[in-house]
Amino acid sequence: MKSRLQSLSRLLFKPLYYLASFFIFIGEVTLWPVKVFLRFLKIVLKFFLEKFLWLIAGIRSIKIPQVRLPRVAFKRKSYTSIKIKKETRFNFWNRTGYFLMGVLTTGVIIICYQSYLFVKDLPSPKNIGKVNYQLSTHIYDRNGVLLYEIYRDENRTPVSLKDLPNYIAQSTIAIEDKDFYKHNGVDLVGGILRAIKEIVLNSSIQGGSTITQQLVKTSLLTPERTITRKIKEIILALWAERLYSKDQILEMYFNQVPYGGSAYGVEEAAKTYFGKSAKDLNLPEAALLAGLPQAPSEYSPYTNPDAALRRRNEVLEAMAKQGYIDETTRKRAESAALDVVPPKTSIIAPHFVFYVKSQLESYYGIEKVEQGGLNVTTTLDVNIQKEAEKILSEELAKVKYLNVTNGAILVTRPSTGEILAMVGSANYFQQPDGAFNVTTALRQPGSSIKPLMYSLALQKGFTAATILDDSPTIFKTPGSPPYQPVNYDGKFHGRVPLRYALANSFNIPAVKTLNSVGVDNFINFAQKLGISTWTDPSRYGLSLTLGGGDVTMVDMAEAYGTLANMGDKLPLSYYLKIQDSDGQTIRELNPFKIREMDPGIAYIISDILSDNQARTWEFGPNSALEIPGYKVAVKTGTTDDKRDNWTIGYTPDFLVLVWVGNNNNSPMNPYLASGITGAAPIWNRMMSYLLQNYVNGSHWYEQPSDVVSKPCFFGRVEYFISGTEKNADCGANALVTPTPTPKP
User: Fold this and answer.
1) What CATH number does the domain containing 226 carry?
2) Are 547 and 583 in contact (CB under 8 A)?
């Protein structure tokens, strides 16, 4: 047994022994030239010191202290048996010392060799403008229809630096690399500090690369974000500065870098955005272009005009700080309007495409999206998208007399979170703000937020049969003016069950209910469902349940999707599958659910929203909220000043959100009636199309096991979370038949 263990031990440790012996041998060999050098240095030093001392002091000889290194002797038979003689005056060098010296020497040799290979494979800066590795990213609909090819055509028109106005170069240097004419291609300290400062203090994207680095990066290197690529970028930048003058580098930069879309170089950018040559650009136009290369999509004047203006003004401010322009010129340029020519790109579902592009950039980075050759199969259905665009255009034409100039439609599949259609405005290509995507913009939801608040109320012990008092009430909060809510119809309706208060969208009962459950509780609850914009609770009060807090359509789709999924929240998804340039799937939709609401509560709220009889008091029996032959949950929302009008409805298969209004936030005509004109007819046509073409018959949710029924008001059966029906008073004396009372 002992011999077996010894054999096993030798088998395991013998390779390590040989490896250690090899490093010891390398260490001893490395030590020889060190010893020779030290001895030579000693002789030379002794000679010159003696001559020096003899000349100035007459001293003929000196004695330099001995520095002894170990003597090394090798057995001729094998380098694995090394005999080391140690001098008594120097005890450091033993087997451990030689081992470390060997490891260090071997590492240096390997690093030097790898560095040689690394530098040997670098592209030459002489190839700037001749080669690059940019690959198009393709965006498809769910059936393989190409929606958009990002940067398929790299349109470049060479331009000479001497032909450009001075402020084109000055604006770029000011915002990108203020020390361009001072550094040697790399500004490690200034660039990094600038990037950190901008990101931390101003939350703005600001690269740490110099203009030279950006040039070699876009011209010679692949778009991946790695340390290796950064090292290559630095080496090539230093190399390029040895080959070219600063003006030559700047000229190549203006002919090479991307400015968004297929516009590569400042000449094509000038034609794309302003319809003119770069030599004819004025100062505000040059400043706008100077701000684009850092993030062409984020600062695009087509998709993000507000961000484009802010970025342009940042460039002008930087120019003023660095003395290129004076304050009067800066202010005059900042007051100039953003006047760009309409985009000429052929594109399907443009609002959705650029939403996808933005999402991809936030996940993979701009360079990967613009040059990495991704193939994205999205969730969009082109047929549904085209029908949505057609419906929106036709219906908006019908209500143009009501000062309704714009609208948006968002269609999702609640069970997976897939976005099936996204129409962000009536016409993407219509100037000045057609490219503005309303589905991602902040808008007030009006009463469409009430189902979320009443869901919380049911969670807090309310029931669909709870009697709410719709009568005049004034709420007084310390430090705030008194708040007196009024109903949409200007009337009071007495004691009404929660079902009828929600179905008819009475405001006063909703405010009283929110006062009972708590504003902060509602904010927390809504955030869990998907409302991401209510970040400062101190800004909101009881008007929150009437739409007093800005939301986005995409957030409302996620929150209503929780109701449509019987309490399970799913994040919205824009992709089914994402592949890299080699065809490998790097991301695939795998819906995951988070239970944020009791299924029974979602079922009861959905039942109320689908109850056409209950909402008849305000909307009548044949409103645009009713789709004959189908059971659909639906809720409207209109702000008091008629700036926003919503209709949101869903079935187990589809969720449709519609908004109408004006991009400039001006009020619509007071005669616009929620549920009759505006968003409701658009919603009805869109939902009807989906149900008739994509659903085989009408079906509804199964009643959850924790939901019980009980005969209640007006001879109908009411639903309750099990146990709460015992506290519900459904007797005749519990309710005064609603008789609308004029407002006093």
Assistant:
1) 1.10.3810.10
2) no
DSSP per residue over 240-298, as a string?
A: HHHHS-HHHHHHHHHHHSB-STTBBSHHHHHHHHHSS-GGG--HHHHHHHHTSTT-TTT
Biggest CA-to-CA distance, the chain: 129
Residues 6+ away with beta carbon under 8 Å from 11: none
Using the 8-state DSSP alphabet, how is residue 412 labeled? E
Spatial contact of 376 and 139, defined as CB atoms under 8 Å apart? yes
> Residue 529 and residue 452: Cα distance in Å, rounded?
8
Please report, for the chain, how many H helices and E strands are present, in that order: 22, 20
Give the whole-angstrom CA distance, residue 574 versus residue 381. 11
CA-CA distance, 597 to 466, in Å (whole number)?
Answer: 20
- Alpha-carbon span 471 to 744, nearest angstrom: 11
Mean pLDDT over 689-703 rounds to 92
pLDDT in tens, 603-623: 999 999 999 999 999 999 999
| Residue at 141 is within a domain | no
The pLDDT assigned to 53 comes to 57
- Which H or E element spans position 435? none
Decide if 353 contacts 138 (C-beta within 8 A): no
Q: Do residue 109 and residue 237 come from a single domain?
A: no
If we measure between CA atoms, which residue out of 689, 586, 598, 606 comes closest to residue 652?
A: 606
Most confident option among 204-213, 606-615, 708-717: 606-615
- pTM for the predicted model, two decimal places: 0.67
CATH code of the domain in which 434 resides? 3.40.710.10
Alpha-carbon distance 493 to 587, whole Å? 54
Same domain for 572 and 452, yes or no, is: yes
Could you please report the per-residue DSSP string of 349-397?
Answer: SHHHHHHHHHHHHHHH-HHHHHHB--EEEES--HHHHHHHHHHHHHHHH
366/613: higher pLDDT: 613
Domain containing 296 equals 148-345
How many domains are there within the chain?
3
Same domain for 208 and 103: no
Distance CA 258, CA 130 (A): 15
Look at residue 477 and give its three-state secondary structure: coil
Rounded distance, CA 509 to CA 496, Å? 9
Token output for 462? 């309310």
**pLDDT reading at 82 higher than 50:** no
Full 3-state SS string of 508-565: HHHHHHHHHHCHHHHHHHHHHHCCCCCCCHHHCCHHHHHCCCCECHHHHHHHHHHHHC
Q: What pLDDT sits at residue 305?
A: 87
Question: Rounded CA gap, 561 and 557, in Å?
Answer: 6
What crossing angle do the helices spanning 227-243 and 95-120 adopt, rounded to 10°?
A: 60
Given a cut of 70, whether residue 118 has pLDDT beyond it is: no
Whether 109 and 178 map to the same domain: the answer is no
Is the domain of 27 the same as that of 161? no
If asked whether residues 555 and 597 sit together in one domain, one would say yes
Peptide bond into 432 cis (omega under 30): yes
Is the model's pLDDT at 108 over the cut of 80? Answer: no
The rounded distance, in Å, linking the Cα atoms of 438 and 425 is 6
Q: What is the mean pLDDT of the chain?
A: 83
Domain boundary among 310, 345, 380: 345
Per residue in 272-331, pLDDT tens? Answer: 899 898 999 999 999 999 999 888 888 988 878 889 999 999 999 999 999 999 999 999
In sequence order, the 6+-apart residues with CB closer than 8 A to the CB of 23 are 98, 99, 102, 103, 106
474 falls within a domain: yes
R_g of the chain, CA atoms, integer Å: 37
> What integer pLDDT is reported at residue 731 of this predicted model?
64
